Amino acid sequence: MSPNQLREVRTTAQAEQEDVFFGQTVIVWARWGVIVAGIALVLWTSNSISLLTQTMPFFLVLMAMNFFFHGRYVMGSPLNRTVVVAASVVDLVLITAIVVFWPGSHGLHNQFYVLYFPVVFAFALVFTRKIEAAYTILAILLYTGACILRATVPFDFGPDDKVLVMRLIVIASMGFLGNYYFRIQRDRLTKASRGSAATTPAVAQR
Amino acid sequence: MSTTATDHLVSPDGKWYWDGVAEEWKPTSQPAPAPTENTPSAPPKPSKPELKGLESFPGSVRTEDLAYGQTVLVWARWILIGTGLLLSFWAPSDLVTLQVQLAAIIALAFGNFYLHVQLLRGHPAIDNVVYGASLADIAVVTALVIVQHGFSSPVFIFYFAAIVGISVAFPTWMTTAYTTLIVGSYGIVALSTATTDEYPAVFTRLLMLAAVALCGNLFARHESRRRAEAIRIHDEMLDDIEQGVIATRQPTPAAQVS
After folding, report:
1. A189 to B227: CB separation less than 8 angstroms, yes or no
2. Dist. CA B40–CA B156, nearest whole Å
3. How large is the angle between the packed helices A129-149 and A159-194, nearest 10 degrees?
4. pLDDT at A195 (0 to 100)
5. Which residues on A lie below 8 Å from B161 (Cβ)?
6. Start-to-end C-alpha separation, chain A
7. Which of B228, B131, B68 is nearest to A181 (CA)?
8. First to last CA, chain B
9. CB contact at 8 A, A171 and A120
């Protein structure tokens, strides 16, 4: 075998499994961000015992789930992609529930839509384009649905519609930019595996 | 590619190294000969790169990371510019706000066009320009937030697009500095214009900005390690192959000594 015959020995499936393995920690950290924000908000904004006891268990369950994920990752046996995807979908559902049901302000007027951003971004850094696109579209649909469900979008091309469009564009850009960087890194890793360490930013030149 | 003696295949006793150009073993104590005109195939002796532009990072890996990360930064800025332009013309609130918005966005567009052209030509811009452009992003978004009455401004979400590019392109300490700048400046503006009831929302926004920066930079560092490991494995395979070739040509370095 000559050096020229060296090629990447990993199959596509193995490479994707590696991506999930190494990328899982990013999703776990993004979820920690959501959990910390959620618990802080529950403790901060609760004005009755019943409200606190009704909302806190959701975050405790999410926290327990993330302890499990993080522990598995630290032990070197992270979960497979199906479980990671399912957990990420649960994140979206939980954030949407916050937007819909949080006491005080609902739908478009709820300020906790920012929780979508790190979750979508972290997911885009781990999975291939099709899965990432599906996840980002799901996030967009869920948020739009939540705003429509609470009748907070007038559909009159006024300022409220403008705000909704702005937020949806940023959610989409989180997914796009994250996955764009992910693909750049895949390209670089493939080149590094083949021995061309001094790679040039070919992606930028396209 | 560097051609220092330490990069060559070294014999197990460490006293000899393999000169691939002359195809012979040479003592490691003797410095590698400089290329002469009689050996046209010899690679030119690499000169020490001037610490300028993208080379100013310690270590070539980070320098290259910035070059790659620049594409993300540029696209993030185009998203900011495109969305900003679209939304500026959509139900503008008042003339002064519109004037400030358009002036800032057009200035950003010119700067980003320059950076994008540099990338298309294969010449990533020098470090200070990249850092300055990111500061300009932050300044523009902050200016728009202030013009639109601080906390109530919906424009703050463009910080997220900016911070994504910063977190994957810049080293950790610089990502931390930029994130601190964003969180600090927006935190001051938001807290000074929000009511007490709105403080939880401010807290959430600031926390999510930090979370996005953490995720981006964590991923970039992991990828850097994976790449270094892939390069190491590849180099080891090459060494093994080279040793196999040598074994067939010259059995041992000791043969030359005798």
Report:
1. yes
2. 59
3. 160
4. 64
5. 170, 173-174, 177
6. 33
7. B68
8. 33
9. yes
The span from the CA of B211 to the CA of A115, in Å, is: 10
- The closest alpha carbon to B42, from B3, B89, B88, belongs to B3
> In chain B, which residues have their Cβ closer than 8 Å to the Cβ of A36?
207
Nearest CB to B154; choose among A2, A44, A163: A163
Q: Given an 8 Å threshold on Cβ–Cβ distance, is A166 in contact with B87?
A: yes
Is residue B209 within 8 Å of residue B186, measured between CB atoms?
Answer: yes
Per-residue pLDDT band at B40 (split at 50, 70, 90): very low
Those residues of chain A that have pLDDT short of 70 are 1-13, 195-206
Predicted confidence (pLDDT) per residue in B91-136, tens digit: 777 787 788 888 888 888 988 888 888 888 877 667 788 888 889 9
Cα-based angle A189, A192, A196 (whole degrees, multiple of 5): 140
Residues 6+ apart with CB under 8 A from B222: A22, A23, A25, A26
Q: Say if residue B164's pLDDT is above 60.
A: yes
Give the contacts of B65 (CB within 8 A, at least 6 positions apart). B169, B171, B220, B224
Tokens standing for residue B220: 């970039």
CA–CA distance, B144 with B98 (Å, rounded to integer): 10
B72 to A184: CB separation less than 8 angstroms, yes or no:
yes
Q: Is B215 on the interface with A (CB under 8 A)?
A: yes
B144 token code pair: 């728009």
Report CB contact under 8 Å: A117, B212. Answer: yes
pTM of the model: 0.74
Which tens digit of pLDDT belongs to each residue from B138-156?
A: 998 998 888 888 888 888 9
**In sequence order, what are the residues at sequence separation of 6 or more whose Cβ sits closer than 8 angstroms to the Cβ of residue A83?**
none
**Weakest-pLDDT range from A21-25, A158-162, B51-55, B73-77:** B51-55
CB contact under 8 A, B200 and A33: no
Predicted confidence at residue A4, as pLDDT, reads: 45
Which pLDDT tens digit goes with each residue over A61-96? 888 888 888 888 888 777 788 888 999 999 999 899
Q: Directed axis angle between helix A116-124 and helix B199-249, to 10°?
A: 10
pLDDT number for residue B35: 43
Distance CA(B96)–CA(B92), nearest Å, equals 10
Answer yes or no: is pLDDT of B62 > 80: no
Q: How far is CA A23 from the centre of its chain?
A: 11
Nearest by CB to residue B215, choosing from A29, A40, A45, is: A29
Sequence-ordered list of residues with C-beta below 8 angstroms from that of B118, at least 6 positions apart, any chain: B124, B125
Task: Kindly determine whether residue A111 and residue B227, on different chains, have CB atoms separated by under 8 Å.
Answer: no
